[in-house]
Automatic annotation (TrEMBL):
CDD domains: GT35_Glycogen_Phosphorylase. One of its GO terms (molecular function) is glycogen phosphorylase activity. SUPFAM superfamilies: UDP-Glycosyltransferase/glycogen phosphorylase. It comes from Desulfobacter hydrogenophilus. This is Alpha-1,4 glucan phosphorylase. Belongs to the glycogen phosphorylase family. Its cofactor is pyridoxal 5'-phosphate. The keyword Lipid metabolism does not apply. The keyword Glycosyltransferase applies. GO terms for biological process: glycogen catabolic process. The modification N6-(pyridoxal phosphate)lysine is found at K663. Pfam families: Phosphorylase. Its EC number is 2.4.1.1. It comes from the Bacteria.
Length: 816
């Protein structure tokens, strides 16, 4: 599909940019100021998208199409200029226009702040999904939070991570529309009065609440080809003039100002945790705030064309991105029962039929639980509703499985104990018609393990939707050289139908194509080498094997296993046991949660190992270790196209899917990975010859845990190569100036503590790395495999994932 609807001439674009320079920014034209050029170009694009939002809305209205609302506390959208230009079909025109004026479009793009409104995988997935929904002409909208501060900026000081605030809104955000006219009022705190209605029915009233004002900011989301423009709505918290006046009138000026500050604090910052529940009150308020603003808005829109709720589930689908927005279950019930006076049973049916839940993690520490006492203080009416949902649910379970108290306890929405806790995953499960995992392995684990009781009860609710990524950002935008080669070879239909890449297979052993493919990888590696030398003053050989491990730093992702391998290679070389045949550059990037001590130590370890290796003349031409600071979407876009080898080595059973793995495959890197998450499906697609799989399988690990038969000390005793790596951590080889700082690694293993199974996977890992080295020595063979990876990556498009959601979850009833 060629983007024809958006033909724009260079002179029209120039007129528009000049107009915004003069009228929106009050600056002289022409200009060579990159910031001003970025802003005026963005405004020009926004103009076009604004028109298209209105047209798209007219179309949706006319067809009365079902709307999908994607609720997420995170949207890691990345920079928008490049993506918007591509999807509007204006990229080339814009680049040429700028080039003629002596301006490099890439420099202009660099001006854009990268909005870090997410932690990692879950937030980036949400952003890919928005792109795919718009491209597939689905009426799908994102709802999230307009954080004033995104994920912290990472700086490195003597190898240690330091966090700096990310004030991404300090400059103008040219993409968003602030819609003060659509602000809403959200009740919070207060108390419940237990009334009865005229018929003697229990009719509780939520009284004396405070309120927060939700102010929407809309960011256009343009689909490829520019036909459909949806939007992402982000709510910021504020307080209203009226509300202040009320308190002002009571004469309490200080309290009024305090309230205002308190309200605005709610959307101040994104919680920088991606696996550990914070348990902070403010986070709960954020979750509630998002859900309450969103549901008000959804109902307002629905009510434009409807008088009652009968058609609600046919007109509205709400997808909850993990449990973070799972209070939607209670809030929708509250709105239907308390505000629209629907009978409980009817409201419950509507709620269940409308909501669906995606689970993104099996890590126990990430499963959200909130103290009932906290809910009672913040949202007392919701707690009541949750108790009532639970009462009715447990009644059904007790009727179906009599005398099974254990089961009731396991399935309850409430965990009893010292203090009662609400299990948010159970709330989401019970209140939805669908629950999905994000890769086939992950969905199986949910069924068999975490949610097995629920699976036994409602097998039909469990669905798998393997994650995907948008090829518009991750190939067309990030890797223009490869995108062009592909388009020259098979045409451009891959941009909206990634399965077309299969047509590259016949070219995988054609010399001309292979040479071009290899030249492109080499050029991308040169670009990355330049970035590395500019940021770290480190010179990198673009002909070395680029072996890349980039993602959040977490023990289960096993950056430590990678470092152990690097240390192993280093020791082998300096002790003369190995003559290196392939020069290797190991590249890391990723942020650690600020309170996660081990993750931060791992960052320090990477730096120190790097310092020793990079300065050691004996391995000067063989090994380099690089840590690129402040990982972000825009940095990923620069790193991934340059990868030879993609490290996806999490402990099997822990990584729900992974999406970085897919980005690397699409960009012609080979993967070394465990049978975890979507790696399993990448193996199926690529074929065993084209991916390097090693290590324990998920069920083997579960089995070892169950039988308690993993003892790290035994591995230390049995395997000399493990011993000397761990000894090097103990012996200060990598911390001569800060003695003892890495001993914790050694001591952990000696205490038989290694929850992430580094040692059993170590030998298989170094073996597979030896195989990789041997294969890299044969560039023809390597290139062929890389091409086959690209050709077979079609399944991992977010277009496929979104079609799956649409068919299996959002329009399930329409189909049957
Ligand atoms: C409450 C604290 C918290 C915050 C975020 C707990 C858990 C999370 C997320 C669920 C973590 C996350 O990003 N999960 C990742 O989701 C990706 C998209 O589905 C998957 O590809 C990754 O495997 C998974 O780790």
């Amino acid at each position: 599909m060629k983007p024809t609807v958006n033909k724009i001439s260079k002179s029209d674009l120039k007129t528009s940019i000049d107009y915004h320079l003069r009228c929106s920014l009050c600056k002289e034209t022409p200009t060579k100021d990159y910031r001003d050029l970025f802003l005026s170009t963005a405004f020009s694009l926004r103009d076009r998208m604004a028109e298209k939002i209105l047209h798209t809305e007219q179309r949706y209205q006319a067809s009365q199409t079902k709307r999908v609302y994607y609720l997420s506390l995170e949207f890691l959208i990345g920079r928008l200029m490049g993506n918007n230009l591509h999807n509007l079909g204006m990229f080339d025109v814009c680049r040429e226009f700028m080039a003629e004026a002596g301006i490099d479009i890439e420099e202009v793009r660099e001006q854009e702040n990268d909005p870090g409104l997410g932690n990692g995988g879950l937030g980036r997935l949400a952003a890919c999904f928005l792109d795919s929904m718009a491209t597939l002409d689905i009426a799908g909208f994102g709802y999230g939070i307009h954080y004033e501060y995104g994920l912290f900026k990472q700086e490195i000081d003597n190898g240690y991570q330091r966090e700096k605030p990310d004030n991404w809104l300090a400059d103008l955000n040219p993409w968003e529309f602030k819609r003060t006219d659509e602000k809403c009022i959200i009740p919070i705190k207060g108390r419940i009065e237990h009334f009865q209605d005229r018929d003697g029915e229990y009719n509780p009233m939520w009284l004396d609440w405070n309120f927060i004002v939700g102010i929407p900011f809309d960011i256009p989301v343009v689909g490829y080809g520019g036909k459909t423009v949806n939007w992402l709505r982000l709510y910021g918290a504020g307080s209203s003039a009226d509300f202040d006046i009320q308190i002002f009138n009571e004469g309490d000026y200080f309290r009024a100002v305090e309230q205002k500050v308190e309200s605005e604090t709610i959307t101040k910052m994104l919680y920088p945790l991606d696996t550990i529940m914070s348990g902070r009150e403010l986070r709960l308020v954020q979750e509630y705030f998002l859900v309450a603003c969103t549901l008000k808005d959804i109902i307002r829109r629905y009510m434009k064309n409807n008088e009652n709720f009968d058609r609600f589930p046919d007109q509205v689908a709400i997808q909850m991105n993990d449990t973070h927005p799972s209070l939607a279950v209670a809030e929708l019930m509250r709105l239907l029962v308390d505000e629209y006076a629907l009978p409980w049973g009817h409201a419950w049916e509507i709620t269940q039929q409308t909501l669906a839940y995606t689970n993104h993690t099996v890590l126990a520490e990430a499963l959200e639980k909130w103290p009932a006492a906290l809910l009672e203080r913040i949202i007392p009416r919701h707690l009541q509703i949750i108790y009532e949902i639970n009462r009715q649910f447990l009644e059904k379970i007790a009727a179906r499985y009599p005398n099974d108290v254990d089961l009731l306890q396991r399935m309850s929405l409430i965990e009893e104990g010292e203090s009662k806790q609400v299990r948010m995953a159970h709330l989401a499960l019970v209140g939805s018609h669908s629950v999905n995992g994000v890769s086939s392995l992950h969905t199986e684990i949910l069924k068999q393990d975490n949610f097995s009781d629920f699976y036994a009860l409602w097998p039909e609710r469990f669905v798998n939707v393997t994650n995907g990524i948008t090829q518009r950002r991750w190939l067309l935008g990030a890797n223009p050289r490869l995108a062009e080669l592909i388009t020259d070879t098979i045409g451009d239909s891959w941009i909206t139908d990634l399965s077309q890449l299969r047509r590259l297979e016949p070219h995988a052993d054609q010399t001309v194509f292979m040479d071009e493919f290899r030249d492109i990888k080499r050029a991308n590696k040169e670009d990355l080498s330049k970035i590395i030398s500019d940021t770290l003053w480190l010179s990198i050989d673009p002909d070395s094997l680029f072996d890349i491990h980039i993602k959040r730093i977490h023990e289960y992702k096993r950056q430590l296993l990678k470092i152990m391998h690097i240390v192993h290679e280093y020791l082998q070389i300096i002790r003369g046991e190995k003559t290196p045949t392939v020069a290797k550059t190991f590249i890391f990037a990723g942020k650690a949660a600020p309170g996660y001590w081990v993750a931060k130590q791992i960052i320090k370890l990477i730096h120190n190992v790097g310092q020793v290796i990079n300065q050691d003349r004996r391995v000067r031409d063989a090994l380099k270790v690089v840590f690129l600071p402040d990982y972000s979407v825009s940095l990923a876009e620069k790193i991934i196209p340059a990868a030879d080898l993609s490290e996806q080595i999490s402990m099997a059973g822990q990584e729900a899917s992974g999406t970085g793995n897919m980005k690397f495959m699409l960009n012609g890197a080979l993967t070394v990975g465990t049978l975890d998450g979507a790696n399993v499906e990448m193996l199926e697609e690529a074929g065993a010859d084209n991916i390097f799989i090693f290590g324990l399988k998920a069920e083997e690990i579960t089995d070892m845990i169950k039988k308690k038969n993993y003892h790290p000390v035994e591995y230390y005793r049995l395997f000399p190569e493990i011993r000397r790596v761990l000894d090097a951590f103990r012996d200060n080889t990598f911390c001569p100036d800060e003695q003892g700082i890495f001993q914790w690694i050694y001591h952990r293993m000696m205490n038989n503590e290694d929850s992430y199974f580094h040692l059993p996977d170590f030998s298989p890992y170094i073996q597979v790395q030896d195989q990789i080295e041997a294969e890299y020595l044969d560039p023809v063979n390597w290139t062929k495999k890389a091409i086959l990876n690209v050709a077979r990556s079609g399944k991992f498009s977010s277009d496929r994932a979104i079609s799956d959601y649409n068919r299996l979850i959002w329009n399930k009833n329409a189909q049957s």
